[in-house]
Amino acid sequence: MPERIKVANFGVGVIGSAVVRTIIEKKSDWIEIVAAIDSDPNKNGKDLGDVAGLGRSYGVKVSDQVESTLSSTNPDIVIHTTSSYLAHVYSQLKAIAEQGVDVISSCEELSYPQIVDQNIAKDLDNIARQNDVTILGTGINPGFVMDVLPIVLTSPCVEVEHIRVSRQMNAANRRIPFQKKIGSGMKVEEFKQAIKNGQISGHVGLSQSMSMLADAIGWKLDRIEILSPEPVTLDHAVTGWMEIKPGIVAGTEQKAVGMIGQTRAIEYEFRAYIGAKEEYDAVEIDGTPVVSFRSSPCINGDSGTIAMLINMIPQVLKSKAGLITMSDLPLPSASNMPSPI
Amino acid sequence: MPERIKVANFGVGVIGSAVVRTIIEKKSDWIEIVAAIDSDPNKNGKDLGDVAGLGRSYGVKVSDQVESTLSSTNPDIVIHTTSSYLAHVYSQLKAIAEQGVDVISSCEELSYPQIVDQNIAKDLDNIARQNDVTILGTGINPGFVMDVLPIVLTSPCVEVEHIRVSRQMNAANRRIPFQKKIGSGMKVEEFKQAIKNGQISGHVGLSQSMSMLADAIGWKLDRIEILSPEPVTLDHAVTGWMEIKPGIVAGTEQKAVGMIGQTRAIEYEFRAYIGAKEEYDAVEIDGTPVVSFRSSPCINGDSGTIAMLINMIPQVLKSKAGLITMSDLPLPSASNMPSPI
What we know:
2 copies of one chain form a homodimer.
Chain A: E1 5-10, H1 14-26, E2 31-37, H2 48-51, E3 62-63, H3 66-73, E4 77-80, H4 86-98, E5 102-105, H5 118-130, E6 134-137, H6 148-153, E7 159-170, H7 176-181, H8 188-196, H9 206-217, E8 223-226, E9 230-233, E10 238-239, E11 243-244, E12 249-260, E13 263-273, E14 280-288, E15 291-295, H10 301-311, H11 313-318, E16 322-324
Parallel strand pairs in A: 1-2, 1-4, 2-3, 4-5, 5-6, 6-16, 7-13
Antiparallel strand pairs in A: 7-14, 8-12, 9-12, 10-11, 12-13, 14-15
């Protein structure tokens, strides 16, 4: 058996813990967790197995020290899951890169960072090149359903006139923190207030995904309009993290539009609410030929993100140095799947 | 405007002619046709515009001379559409590569040539490297619907247990030569005889697509069973290139199975018959999470193939030298699409 790829886990939150459990329980034939980093003092010094909910101790202690942890454990790659925002992860990614370690991050803004902050993006790219490491941001969305998938689906098109991407999920199937994040259980006025004060921020990544898609096919968008998240209410009671009565917010709907002149060239719709009867991802390309795909159900967000973070490891290890995006890597796929028997 | 990419067209048949018309009529902002090659004596010396059905003369003569045509016109890339079989295209691809020109071919067996003939594949790879050129086989199928698409759709999977890919098309919407190729209008006995004597060969590319998919996700298939094409008959009359009466062959159905031990790990179904009520491409991945996408209609085969051949040009020009597959290139997409307004 070839030597296993050594992974350091940075951020032992909900997604990071699930990555840890998945690697230890299902991926032990080709990768192993050798280190864990988290800034939370309540996790520091504890066994990773306990913090990540493995149900047993694992023999790796969670540390809040980036440099010394990486230099002493010498991982091949870091899986990083701490924040959605580029400014928050910048110093963490810099520290990882300066230790000479590749990194795959779930940071939504990192999926297409040049549109968030050109200076940070250039700086990270330089640091990555100087240290001969690769930095990639990915996940299910951004990272797959609203960028990689529609990009690939334009391949068989001679002409493209309009692209619509939509994702609808029944939030009752998701974690309670996710349900709370989308406002479920709030009164409509509370929801609107929560939007105003930033307590509800909407889905992070719509403009990243749309920019990646437009750039891939050569469209120059004049602007991307990210509409404010709207509350979704229903006329009947549904059950989520609490009972959602009629008129109470079940979740949210958000739209984004990519404009070329006065033309709505790309349209995104994202709906997540408790009680959604249909769950789907859909990509509709008006063009020659028409390409219109729809999934049932929608791709599960948590599993999908965990899979993207792990499946990209072999490709990122082989990639050129620098701050890259999913558009730079060869065809993504599940990696090293064990035989189904 | 940057200089346009110079394309030589090799094979001025149905698909080659459509590539020529598409480039001249719709892609003139970034590519141009500078040469045309075809071995048919009836085309040799004629104007490409007339041969390709452009409706006007174009000023490029079709030639049957590969070396002199390429050396005198100095194209950046050849679009090659002459045959489905590796053995038939070998000497043509060798001649192109030895002129130092990249090539994208619709040859079905070239999409994953190492499983067809390792010696030819190695030889072409060596010739390509020695001449610093890239050789790619692509198209809609193989090239997209049964390989690239299911490969990409495994990306968000932590686990993959079974993959089913199916494509169904109403052959009434396709060219008459295609309708004849799938046996439409034959009696069932004639169809069976045509299978026996090789007049109907079934869809070329199923084993290429399935091998590419299995290799991408790390499955070792013990064998691929390509079942013989079966005739499809209907209980009512339908209209195609001729009236298809009940009991007469409307088209064909073909299955392929990728076996691991006694387990049917990957299953392909391909149906093309006149009168098919639904047209779709479907990829169903049993795994964690479930990923199940279906299109309506199926992606048009002719437009799709033409698009794949043209859209891959920028990526192939930038690619490393050698005989490559779609799995080696970065994320495929439509290329250089003009603004939709």
